[in-house]
User: What shape does this take?
Amino acid sequence: MLVIFVLLLLYSRNLLIEMSVVEYDFTVRSIPSNPDGYPRSVTIMHHTNSSWNIDRPFPCPTIRARLGDLVRIQIRNLLRDQSTSIHFHGLHMFKNPWSDGTVHITQCAIEPYENFTYEFNITQTGTFWYHSHSAQQYADGLIGPIIIDGDPIEHKYVYDQSNDYVIMLQEWYHDDWPTIMTAYQGPFDAYPGFRPVYPWPPTSFLINGHGQFDCRTTDCTGNMTWKDSCGYEYPAQCIPLRASFFGRCNSTAHSPDEFLCPAGKQIRLRLINAASGIPFRFWIDQHNLTIVARDSLEISPINVTHLHIPIGQRLDLIVHCNRIPNFKYTIFVASRNSYKPPQNITGQTPTLWTWAYLIYSNISTDKRQIQSLDESIIDSENPFFEYEYLKPIETRYARRAIRRVTLAFEVVWNNRTRIDALEEWAVNGITFEPPKEPLLHANYFDGTLQHSLADERIGRVNNIHATHVHYFEYGQTYEILMINYDPQLHPWHLHGYSVDFIAAGKIPEFNPRTGNRTRRKTNEDPYDKLLPPLNSTPVVLSMGDSFNIPPESYVVFRFTANNPGPWFLHCHMEWHIWPGMALVFSVEQNGRYEDLIHSPSNAIPICGRRKYRSTKARLPSLVSFSFK
Assistant: This one.
């Protein structure tokens, strides 16, 4: 990392801001590694002028900056046969969508042996993360934390910088994701007798890139079963476990991590769910967790004994080191249902755990006897937990909205031989197809998206394949109603914004569950009566950019379209994005981004049908310090 100090003092809202230019130079490549003791190929990013950490090649290097800094990150792609891109999850890239890092939406892919430079101002503080937004590379290791110093948590809670820990959580497989996605997408009877399989269960869980695996093998000839929510048993899906091509498996390759908790003090945990398909349950033996921030935004602090964290979300925790100091205390990470008795577990994700330790000194005794804390009055098992309890630090009211946009999503199946994948996903009946060239380029250089949209085609399961775009007028406030008709929860992420959640609940007027696979429909649209009027200013329940929508439920948020550009809204389950569970929010003024966003670099790559870029517009410079 190179930090260039700039002798420039800027005033914004009467705040004195010191600006630095922070530069990183990274290389993306694939290497063999053994995150849980089993050797396989992983995808990583490391400092170009040095090697990677051979013991822990991912999470990749921390990106660190402060409010007002200009960050410049050069990426060199040394993947032999894959393009890549880097998305900075949670950073709004205010009026600078050029650095959002979303292939097909804001940029061309970084092709093998090419370079790309991201350059952006820091307009937020707190905990963020970055990951590849190409194919499923982040599930293979291309992830890392982002810390923007100077957030309110630093000033309100007393902890040493050495006790400020990042904890990134992942599930892990022993096949790489191109293989897993091929098995999932099929199609049926690609060879005689082939049936697509879902990408579960994972083999292990990782804490900061390390996990434990017992080196077992299986050819999936067992008779394991799972229960659906109606109690019916089915044969459990199994992913074969075999000896590694890269070498011998070592079940003791990595000891569980240890986090120092100085007696009588407190520590900060920056918890990030970087999984591709698993919401995690997290708790620490005999310690309460104080949640103080959600998605980098300070909340009214709450104490819980355990929590569930959706994919993509960040929760900042304060832990008080107030227990007997000569013991180790286990930090547990589990699938949501792993704490239940086996006979009560439903779904196809089996009981799965990993762990680390909280220690009070460098010499500790392993404490095996578990003493339960008194249960918090807050119900952490509530599926609407984040909307009921992760409240803004100060009471906040949503702005009046001019229009409601309803986004209803569901899975669609078909099994026609040699034609269909296992499933496709649709939002309002549309399965997302990538555009012919980045939407940002099309609108900025040509003033329209129309020639860049994918050719629309009729799907085989009553869906339409198209580049799904919703258009919003710059400066206006809108209400988004998202309805999940699926019997599983889904984690969503909106690029470019933090939104105000104003309502969440079960879909009304559904018939009781009968245990069959028939979708239950409402008789009429009840939401006009159920939700606050558009011209009202309801209390904001919570704020964030990454959120769960529970099974057969709805979530409502409002946002003011003040960040122009094309912004991706998608399910953060990797195997749901690519089968179409996504759309784009295009924030425009009279149909254009021009004059609203910063100018692109002259070196920005172009792709698709475009052979040149227009230079007709007079554009603002990149360095802007408006924090509205």
